[in-house]
Design goal:
This protein is an alpha/beta fold. It has one domain: LigB-like (Protocatechuate 4,5-dioxygenase, Chain B, 3-Layer(aba) Sandwich). It is 35% helix and 21% strand. It has ten helices and ten strands. Strands 6-3-7-2-8-1-10-9 form an eight-stranded mixed beta sheet, sandwiched between helices. A two-stranded antiparallel ribbon has the order 4-5. It is globular, with a radius of gyration of 17 Å.
């Protein structure tokens, strides 16, 4: 049977993708950030996942204010990098895993989650930047990827608890899939940041580090954090962190924190990263 072996939390700051694409990773500003992902690249190369479920939010590339699904799963065979206004990122086409994606869609819908099924979708930096940070710049991504888009752009976004419970439903769905697959799940976005208004540029490192602590040790408590707390403490875009709770819910109750990295700033954003392993 399929098994989720680990979860990865990772920021998806668009400027990180630009630094990679423009060859700036060795510059003094960017070097400390990319150094923080060297362990992660070695780790994932050793683990060799068969499939990655990648939880992210679309930035008006596949969806717009005309259509805003709360949860949407990509069931296509492949997903093209999106043109976000300056051309698509020069990264490989994302190969999907339609069989597992359809199985997760069916299982979660029958588990009473209203999942939108998407059969054609371009994927933007929210998905491709974490892939670049974890896998580098290969000719092709080393495994299929199932995109799971979450609305954290237009109010009301789903609660942390709803995301956490969806993660648990995904865990059950994967465990019931009848192929022998090593699956990883990424939760992306965040950490604290605000892109507009009087608090533009806000970074709250104390909140971010506390969030990482609780993600490992007290996810049930973290799932109860209300929307207003994210806005107050982590900025208007800090709500992206609820997507990390889908990743955490998909793991076992007790996990091993294999690695953690935190860096500020990258552009005007705090960058967080964590690797959580299920018991073997």
């Amino acid at each position: 049977m399929a098994k989720i072996i680990a979860g990865v939390g990772c920021s998806h700051v668009p400027a990180i993708g630009a630094a990679i694409d423009l060859g700036k990773t060795g510059e003094a500003y960017w070097q400390p950030l990319f150094k923080g992902f060297e362990f992660s690249k070695r780790w994932i190369a050793d683990e060799k996942p068969d499939v990655v479920i990648l939880v992210y939010n679309d930035h008006a590339s596949a969806f717009s204010l005309e259509m805003i699904p709360t949860f949407a799963i990509g069931c296509a065979a492949q997903f093209q990098p999106a043109d976000e206004g300056w051309g698509p990122r020069p990264v490989p086409v994302v190969q999907g895993h339609p069989e597992l994606a359809w199985h997760i869609a069916q299982a979660t819908i029958l588990d009473e989650f209203d999942m939108t099924i998407v059969n054609k979708m371009d994927v933007d930096h929210g998905l491709t930047v974490p892939l670049s940070l974890m896998f580098g710049q290969p000719e092709a991504w080393p495994c299929p990827v199932i995109p799971l888009a979450v609305n954290v752009v237009q109010y009301p976004p789903p609660t942390g608890n709803r995301c956490y419970q969806l993660g648990r439903a995904i865990r059950k769905a994967v465990a019931s899939f009848d192929q022998d697959l090593k699956v990883m799940i990424f939760g992306t976005g965040g950490m604290s940041h605000q892109l507009q208004g009087p608090r533009a540029g806000l970074i709250n490192s104390e909140f971010d580090r506390r969030f990482l602590d609780k993600l490992t040790a007290d996810p049930d408590g973290l799932a109860r954090l209300p929307h207003i707390e994210y806005v107050r403490e982590a900025g208007s875009e800090g709500i992206e962190l609820v997507m990390w709770l889908i990743m955490r819910g998909a793991l076992e109750e007790k996990v091993h924190e294999r690695y953690r990295f935190y860096h500020v700033p990258a552009s005007n954003t705090a960058v967080g990263h964590i690797i959580l392993e299920n018991p073997r």
